[in-house]
Amino acid sequence: MTVVAALAYALLGGGALLALVRLALGPSLLDRVVATDTLLVVIACGLAVYAALERNPTVVPVLVVVSLLAFVGSVSIARYVGGMLLRSEDDTQAGGTAADRRPGGAR
Amino acid sequence: MNDLDSVADVLAAGCLLVGALLCLTAGLGLVRFPDVLSRMHAGTKPQVLGVLLVMTGAAIRLHGWSATWMLLLVGAFQLVTAPVSAHMVSRIAHRRRHVRRDLLLVDELGGEPLTPPPDRLSGDQPADAH
């Protein structure tokens, strides 16, 4: 079981490190969103591996919270970036068409 | 430890190792792939299969129904939410032109011209727009 633990933690650590590299390098915001999502999944997997190898169920509620947090974070950043897109479209057509358009309705 | 326990431990260790390997491949794909959609393709490998494998391994190892139900909840939640978040991120990526259009074989959403006319360029066009 010690070999399994070392191997699993090494694989998870490598995955998390590479996701951190993409999080630092990523040229756009959405690359960082994808990298953060993957990083949270790797963290959840690491917590589950710890709970399994130590037979210690105290970190299992943390697992639920982390998976909820990954979903809420990526969806809210995607909504935010989409809101920037809609606002820029309204700005460029700020003549007569944007005035009578329902805000946020151009979708 | 009797025989059944050792078999269950080997099975759980296999599930955990395959899940951890999927996490490593996700990291590799995130670093090596060229644009948002292909990085998403690599990065969402462990989101369903990896999480389900790791949860299965943990549920085999952990005795007690409360932990098993909570792990099952995490797996079901990943199954529900991973398509939703992937759909939203990829839709915004397509609209914000973070997609390498020269690498796409079929672009079923691409009805508009690839480069917008100059009067429609606004300040928030990303630097790697195509």
**Count of DSSP E strands of chain A?**
0
The rough form of chain A would be described as elongated
Structural class of chain B: mainly alpha
What fraction of residues of chain B sit in β-strands?
under 5%
Tell me which protein chains meet in the greatest interface and how many residues each side has: A-B, 55 and 61 residues
Describe the largest sheet of chain B: none
**What is the 3D form of chain B?**
elongated
Order of helical and strand elements of chain B: HHHH
How many domain modules of chain A? 1
Oligomer: heterodimer
Distance between the termini of chain A: 53 Å
Helix-strand string of chain A: HHH
Give the helix tally of chain B: 4
Radius of gyration of chain B: 21 Å
Count of structural domains of chain B: 1
Which percent range fits the helix content of chain A? over 70%
Which spans of chain B of ≥5 residues are poorly predicted at pLDDT below 50? Answer: 123-130
Number of strands of chain B: 0
- Summarize the main sheet of chain A: none
Which secondary structure elements does this structure contain, and how are they paired or packed?
The complex is a heterodimer of chains A (107) and B (130).
Chain A: H1 2-25, H2 29-54, H3 60-92
Chain B: H1 3-32, H2 36-43, H3 45-61, H4 65-95
Helix pairs in contact in B: 1-2, 1-3, 3-4
In short:
By secondary structure, chain A is an all-alpha fold.
List keywords for this structure.
heterodimer; A: 107 residues; mainly alpha; 3 helices; elongated; disordered C terminus; B: 130 residues; 4 helices; 66% helix; 0% strand
Description:
The complex is a heterodimer of chains A (107) and B (130). By secondary structure, chain A is mainly alpha-helical. Chain A has one domain. Chain A is built from three helices and no strands. In chain A, helix 1 runs antiparallel to helix 2 and helix 2 packs antiparallel against helix 3. The longest helix of chain A has 33 residues. In chain A, 36% of the residues are buried. Chain B has one domain. Chain B contains four helices and no strands.
